[in-house]
From TrEMBL:
One protein family per Pfam: GIY-YIG
Source superkingdom: Bacteria
Organism: Candidatus Amesbacteria bacterium RIFCSPLOWO2_01_FULL_48_25
Family indicated by similarity: Belongs to the UPF0213 family.
PROSITE patterns named among the record's database cross-references: GIY_YIG
Stated name of the protein: GIY-YIG domain-containing protein
All residue ranges annotated as the GIY-YIG domain in the record: 1-77
InterPro entries cross-referenced by the UniProt entry: GIY-YIG_endonuc, GIY-YIG_endonuc_sf, UPF0213_domain
Gene3D superfamilies linked to this entry: GIY-YIG endonuclease (3.40.1440.10)
Length: 89
């Protein structure tokens, strides 16, 4: 399985990524290993606020790029589960 996830940083910014091992990836981010995303290393903390599961890496990567192209308002609607607002946007 592959995952697309959204993290909310301590500065209230959003980071979107994809992985095949979500637990391991979150540990890498928390421990600020050299494998963690450089962007996430600059923040004191973060919270996992959203995740989706996919059967293939290709599908996960397509979704990751789609979400990265969305506006902040649309991403927040997805995170909060506001499907009506999401459809309008």
């Amino acid at each position: 399985m592959y995952y697309v996830y959204i993290l909310r940083t301590s500065s209230n910014t959003l980071y979107i990524g994809q992985t095949n091992d979500l637990g391991k990836r979150l540990r890498e981010h928390r421990e600020k290993t050299r494998k963690s995303a450089r962007y996430v290393r600059y923040f004191d903390s973060f919270n996992l606020v959203y995740q989706e599961t996919f059967e293939t890496r290709s599908k996960a990567m397509k979704r990751e790029w789609q979400l990265k192209g969305w506006t902040r308002i649309k991403k927040e609607a997805l995170i909060s589960g506001d499907l009506e607002l999401l459809k309008k946007l």
